[in-house]
Specification:
six-stranded mixed sheet; 26 helices; 60% helix; globular
């Protein structure tokens, strides 16, 4: 089959990919739907490599023509979507989110949005649901690949078919090996960056060079095996799956098997070429472009809690917008000749988007669109102090956060994850009032326990275990009297956590330390400063998104039962301070948000708890919590 021949079953495969992605993002029972992006990568590598090689063999390939085609294919729909999102953001988004949108717009214009989102994916950063252009990271990966692939094929063309194939094989194996290692070491970077994703595109490239020579029955079996691989990826994987790494092999091989094993007359071919599947495949690019910004605005305007009917409606609206974009934006541009102006048009469009992004950045998100009270509430997301994401070496070198009065010997140590950072301003104030000195040993996504590792938290295992051991040794070496363990306990996998916490407390107690465990701060279903600001803007009475004591107790019942009866542990029951008499979360004190996001205390909220913390720790009477 010639590469230039249209294959409707590929559009059917695109339909499966985009539907899985949309279902995943809209929370419609597809926990591994993010694997649809990997299927797109395989398809892209397969088609683009075949197209370039065919034109090279005919002597018709030029880089200018290649990029002109890419611009006609990708830029018009992207440009319309981005300009529309920018205009909508000027009406809807709060200043910080609007300014962040401007930054991501500039990054996308420079084809590096994947790098931008990797670098800005901080633990305390804005939630992904508030970033309308987050999905463009995958487009940047693909565009970066398009810069490399033509050069590779041009370099190897004319030498030998074997040379090209071996070069692609070598690149594929090197990228896959790097992806496996990088996913374990730096999982967030591995997810976003080209070197750990390139093998997926090269897998498609390799198939385009030589498809398997199998009998029709074996090809049919191969195609359905590919479908089984995709189904397993979509429903067995989830956000906690280390990805890409080895796990990405399942959807990528599934796509390869379907591309190779789907032949005319085959039942799978009939399924993939049904008109609804083909139409969804044809609009898949535009549908992908529109589905995420719509979800972000839906999530925003419902304070992070869109209902099932709202999510289904949003997904259907994405399909309608995707069809409109394909019919009235993509098709006219793709069918036009462009008269050689595509590269100039691409440069002008990039400059336009950079200009729009710069407006949002230089205007600081345009806070004047909102009342002073809305801005005051929204700004609480920056009300943070003592944020120190340490590593084991810093603890060993005593490069840690100091709390309380200035003394050489620490009276207490607070050890924990980012919630320990958030509670530190309150402990600092309480310690100053009591004349005590403390140290904070903190690392985000890392609970204060020994011998425990949760792979879903995207932290390297060796670093996690080393940090815990360094913290224990720090406490032992300095004979610290009081240790306060702080964590978002329900955030971690419960498997082995309670046992590890009890074991850690026992070991510290044997070393002469008194151990206190702070119950986790009640997590909210929405970002508190943003939700309070939006409630203020739209005059919403009460806080329907706030957590309740009933839900908190239900979620933490097992943990409470295990810890509260352990004689080695003094439990600091935060519920007494952060729920009112009706069992509702306290999210505002003296007009200031108690939280800086959906789960971490703001510095103001932490300091408000200083008296409570001092009382619970017995610091008014000396260091004796019992």
């Amino acid at each position: 089959m010639r590469r230039s021949e249209y294959r409707p079953e590929i559009d059917g495969l695109r339909a499966i990919s985009v539907v899985s992605v949309v279902a995943f993002h809209y929370g419609l029972s597809c926990p591994g739907g993010f694997c649809g992006v990997d299927v797109f990568y395989v398809i892209s590598g397969y088609l683009i490599t075949g197209l370039i090689r065919e034109r090279l063999h005919k002597g018709q390939f030029s880089l200018q023509d290649f990029w002109a085609r890419r611009i006609r294919r990708l830029l018009p729909a992207l440009l319309v979507m981005v300009i529309s999102v920018w205009a909508m953001a000027m009406v809807v988004l709060l200043p910080t989110d609007n300014k962040d949108l401007g930054k991501s717009l500039v990054a996308q214009s420079l084809l590096v949005s994947n790098v931008y989102f990797w670098r800005t994916n901080e633990y305390f950063g804005n939630a992904s649901e508030n970033k309308p252009l987050l999905h463009t990271w995958s487009l940047s990966v693909e565009e970066q690949f398009y810069l490399l692939l033509p050069a590779l094929l041009l370099f190897t063309h004319g030498r030998s078919r074997l040379s090209t194939k071996r070069t692609i094989q070598a690149g594929l194996l090197a990228s896959l090996a790097f992806s496996v290692w990088f996913t374990a070491w730096k999982p967030t970077a591995a997810f976003y960056l080209l070197p750990s994703r390139m093998w997926e595109l090269l897998l498609g490239s390799l198939l385009s060079m030589r498809e398997p020579e199998l009998s029709p029955p074996k090809l049919r079996a191969l195609g359905w095996l590919g479908m089984a691989f995709l189904a397993a990826s979509f429903w067995l994987f989830g956000p906690a799956t280390p990805f890409p790494g080895f796990a990405a092999l399942l959807p990528c091989l599934g796509a390869i098997f379907i591309l190779a094993g789907t032949i005319p007359g085959h039942s799978l071919h009939k399924f993939l070429t049904k008109p609804p599947m083909v139409v969804l495949g044809k609009i898949s690019y535009s549908l992908y472009l529109w589905h995420w910004p719509l979800f972000v605005f839906l999530h925003y305007l419902t304070n992070g809690s869109p209902s099932l009917p709202q999510r289904v409606s949003g997904a259907l609206l994405s399909v309608l917008l995707g069809y409109w974009s394909w019919r009235f934006v993509e098709q006219p541009w793709r069918q036009g000749k462009g008269k050689g102006l595509e590269l100039k048009a691409g440069a002008v469009a990039s400059l336009l988007l950079i200009f729009l992004g710069a407006i949002s950045i230089w205007g600081n998100g345009f806070p004047g669109r909102f009342s002073p009270r809305v801005i005051e509430l929204a700004d609480a997301e920056s009300d943070r102090e003592m944020v120190a994401d340490l590593n084991a070496n810093q603890i060993i070198r005593d490069q840690v956060t100091h709390l309380g009065v200035n003394k050489q010997q620490a009276d207490f140590v607070v050890w924990g994850d980012s919630h320990a950072m958030a509670i530190s301003p309150g402990l600092d104030l309480a310690a100053r009032r009591a004349g005590l000195s403390g140290r904070a040993l903190t690392r985000s996504g890392t609970p204060p326990v020994l011998g425990y590792f949760d792979p879903s938290k995207k932290r390297p295992q060796a670093e996690t275990l080393a940090f815990a051991e360094a913290a224990r040794d720090y406490i032992r070496k300095r004979s610290v009297k009081e240790v306060i363990l702080v964590g978002s306990w329900s955030y971690y996998s419960p498997k082995g956590l309670k046992e590890a916490l009890v074991s850690t407390a026992t070991e510290l107690a044997k070393s002469g330390s008194r151990v206190s465990v702070l119950l986790e701060v009640p997590p909210q279903s929405a970002d508190v400063p943003r939700s309070l600001a939006l409630d203020e803007r739209f005059s919403v009475a009460g806080h329907p998104w706030a957590a309740t004591l009933v839900d908190y107790d239900r979620k933490n019942r097992d943990f409470l039962t295990e810890i509260s009866h352990n004689p080695q542990i003094h439990l600091i029951d935060i519920r007494r301070a952060l729920f009112d008499e009706k069992g509702n979360s306290i999210v505002l004190i003296d007009g200031r948000p108690v939280y800086s996001d959906s789960g971490h205390l703001s510095a103001s909220g932490s300091k408000w708890l200083a008296d409570f913390l001092g009382e619970q720790l017995g610091w008014a009477e000396g260091l004796s919590p019992r």
